[in-house]
Amino acid sequence: MAALAVELSLLERISAALENRLTLGSVELPMLPQVAAEVMAMATDPETDAARLSKLIHRDAALAGAVLKLANSAAQATRMPIASLPQAVARLGMATVSGIAVASSLQGGVFQVRGQEALLAAIWRHSLASASFAQEIARHLRNNVEAAYLCGLLHQVGRPLVLQLAVGAAGSEVGRLDERDFFELFARHERAFGLMLGERWKLAPTVLCAIAHHHEPPLAPRFIKEVLTCALAGALASHALLPEDLDAEASLDLLRCHPSLEALNLYPEDLDALLVHQKTICALVSAIH
């Protein structure tokens, strides 16, 4: 019991430190890399074409390589390999390319948390899978695919920031925190820090709404369909990325009861149609990350 009290005390101390930083506004927020910001803007612009987007991507060699790698991945490959960025953009679509741009930028240096690389990677895998599922849900419902993709990708963007700040607050005691502790901190703080970051980056109102309300979509004041899509996409991603030692059938049962299904007028056969994409989406996530 004494050991448990010590652990709770450390968790509460870190949580209080994060609250204090929010109150004081003493959080140094990272900048969204310029190319990623421009790609996001282009991806939602109906006037953008593959050539224009490709020209922008060419400015970032690492991003260009990531796009070509994904386009030629086992999940996407056809008999003819993709050799140019316009071909890659045409194959992958604006939404996926914008997602690669943001994910590549954020993973490549915006957030770095020494000692927590595995957890950080898991956060991005879930975000990427959520984005892909959100895209499929939106396509199924004939909604805006690009908006859905970005909401899915960024709805938990507060998590890596909370992780970074929590590790800093823990200092030499960080080894006493485990994954459950970090997820408790995410539950308490990711919304506030995510909104702070989203506003700093001038993210679209739909994305900000997804950040604020994906845990409780009925509370969203607007963009309810996008928030519901994001919430369902997150649940689908969690199921798809479920570790092998956990009960997949129990996870599927919970998924079939997800409240967003009814709210979006989706039936069991619609969910089955979405689950068909599970293997492909997992392969895409592996190719990107």
Which sheet architecture does the biggest sheet show? none
Helix content: over 70%
Average pLDDT across residues?
Answer: 87
Tally of domains: 2
Instruction: Give the CA-based shape.
Output: globular
In the CATH hierarchy, the architecture of the largest domain is Orthogonal Bundle
- Could you give the count of β-strands? 0
For the termini, the CA-CA separation is 40 Å
Description of the molecule:
The chain has helices at 2-24, 34-43, 50-57, 61-71, 85-92, 94-110, 117-141, 145-154, 158-170, 179-200, 205-213, 224-240, 248-256, 259-263, 268-275, 278-288. With 289 residues, the chain is mostly helical. The longest helix has 25 residues, at 117-141. Helices cover 71% and strands 0% of the residues. It starts with a helix and ends with a helix. It contains 16 helices and no strands. Helix 4 packs across helix 5 (85-92) and helix 7 (117-141) packs across helix 16 (278-288). The protein folds into two domains: 2-20 and 117-288, Orthogonal Bundle (Hypothetical protein af1432); 31-110, no CATH class.
